[in-house]
Amino acid sequence: MKFRLTKLEKKWVLYDVGNSAFTLLVTTIMPIYFNYLAESAGISDVDYLAYWGYATSASTILVAILGPTLGTLSDLQGWKKRIFMGSLLIGAFGCVLLGFLSSWIWFLGLFILAKSAYSLSLVVYDSMLTDVSESGRMDEVSSHGYAWGYIGSCIPFLVSIVLVLSYSSIGITLQTAMAAAFALTALWWVLLAMPLVRAYRQRHCIEAGEHPVRASILRLGGVFRELGREKKVLYFLIAFFFYIDGVYTIIDMATAYGTALGLDTTGLLLALLLTQVIAFPAALCFGGISRRVSAGRLIKICIAAYFFIALYGMGMTKQYQFWLLACCVGLFQGAVQAISRSYFAKIIPAEKSGEYFGIYDICGKGASFMGTMLVSVVSQATGSVNVGVGALAIMFFLGFLFFRKADKTALAGAVE
Question: What secondary structure, in 3-state letters, does 128-181 show?
Fold first, then answer.
C-alpha cells in the first residue's frame, strides 16, 4: 500500500524544505564568503578552517546550554509555537544581516547567533513530530521531511550559486551577490514555515503553573534523573552523541575542507548540490525499507558507512575524489538523520517530547563541537586537513558500539 502524508504531516515536512536551505547555505556558500573575508585579512588556509570550526563549535555549545531549557519550556501548553517562531525569526534576520558584513570577525560572531537560533528552532520542530503523526508512521514521515528538505533546498541554492559565480558578468560586486543569496535563503525559510505555524496545534503538553520557567528547569532535572532508569534512551543518546556529531561535522565543514585543499570552488558547490539530489531518493528509499527492516538495523548500516567515508577522506586530494565522497554522503546522510529522529520519538514520552528533544539536541547539533574541534585541533597539530577529517572515524566507531547496546536494550524491553 502506498504511503500518503496527511495535510498536517505535509505542512510539517514543508518546514524541512524551508530550513534546509539555510543548512545548505551554511555548508556551501557561507564558508566560501568567509574564506574571501579571511584571505583579505591575511589569514592562512589552515587557520581559516580552524576559525570556521571554532565558530561552529561555539554555536553548538550555545545550543547545548539553551536547547534543553527551551525544549522543556516548549512542553507547556501554548509555548511550543511561541518559542518556535522566536527562534525562526532571529535566525532568519541574522541570515539577512550576514550578507552586509565585511569584517571576518564580526561575520563569525553573527554567524554564531544565526546558526544557534536555527538549531533551537529545530529542537522544537523535531518535538512536534509526536503531535503531527502517530508512532507507526514516524519513520516514513521523518524520512519525507529530510528527503523533500534536500531536494527543495536546491531551489534557492541554484539561484544563489548563479549570483555568486557570475556576479561580475551581471555587473554586481561579490558582497552584493552574497547579500542577495543570504536574503533569498531567509525569505524561503520564513515563507515555508508559515503553513506549519498556522496549522499546528499542541496535542501533548503540560499545564503551565504560576512560575513556568522555574518549573520547567526543575522538570528538566527530573528528566536527567529519569535517564538513569531509561537505559534504552540513555544508551541511544550516548551513541547519538558520537555518530551524529561526525555526520554534522562533515556537513558543516565539507566546503571549508575542500577549499582548504585548494579544490575548485565551482566543482565543490556542484558536488555538494549532487549530494542533495542523491539524498532525496535515498532518504525516501530508507523510509520505505523501514516497513520491512527495523530502524535499529538501518541506523547501524548508516553508521558503518560513515566510518568508511571518514577513512576515505584521509586520502582525498583530487576533485573527482570529492565528488565520490559527496555521492557516498548523499546516500546515507538523510537516512541516518531521519531514522534517528523517529527512532528517538518512539522511545520517549510524547507529553515530554520538548524536554527530551532538548537533550537530544545536546547530543546532536548542540554537542557537535567535539567533531569540529577534533578536526580543527588535529588539522593544526599535524598541519594536514586530511588527518583532521580522518580522525572523525573514531566518532563513528564509538557511536556504533553504543548504538548496538541501545538497540539490544530496547528490544529486550519490548519483549518484556
Answer: CHHHHCCHHHHHHHHHHHHHHHHHHCHHHHHHHHHHHHCCCCCCCCHHHHHHHH
Grid coordinates belonging to 230: 531509561
For 31-48, the pLDDT digits (tens) are 888 888 888 877 776 677
Measure Cα distances from 176 to 157, 168, 182, 311 in Å.
16, 10, 10, 39
Record the pTM.
0.76
* 3 state SS of 42: coil
- Sign of torsion, CA 344 345 351 354? positive
Burial of residue 379 (number of CB atoms within 10 Å: 0-12, 13-18, 19+) = buried
pLDDT digits (tens, 9 = 90+) for 140-155: 898 888 889 888 888 8
6: left (phi over 0), alpha (psi -120 to 50) or beta: beta
CA distance 127 to 78: 14
Q: What top-level class would CATH report for the domain 7-199+213-415?
A: mainly alpha
pLDDT tens by residue, 87-100: 999 999 999 999 88
Largest CA distance in the chain: 69
CA 315-316-317 angle, 5° bins:
115
Q: Which amino acid is at 47?
A: D
State the virtual CA torsion across 250, 59, 89, 188 in degrees, nearest 10: -20
CA distance 262 to 49: 12
Report whether pLDDT(125) > 80.
Answer: yes
pLDDT the model gives residue 415: 44
Please give the pLDDT value at position 260: 66
The domain ranges of the chain are 7-199+213-415
Contact in structure between 300 and 396 (CB atoms under 8 Å):
no
Indicate the SS3 state at residue 99. Answer: coil
Closest-CA residue to 164 (of 18, 12, 5, 156): 156
Pick from 17-21, 228-232, 248-252, 276-280 the range whose average pLDDT is largest. Answer: 17-21
pLDDT of res. 396: 92
Cα(52)–Cα(30) distance, rounded to whole angstroms? 10
pLDDT confidence of residue 318 = 76
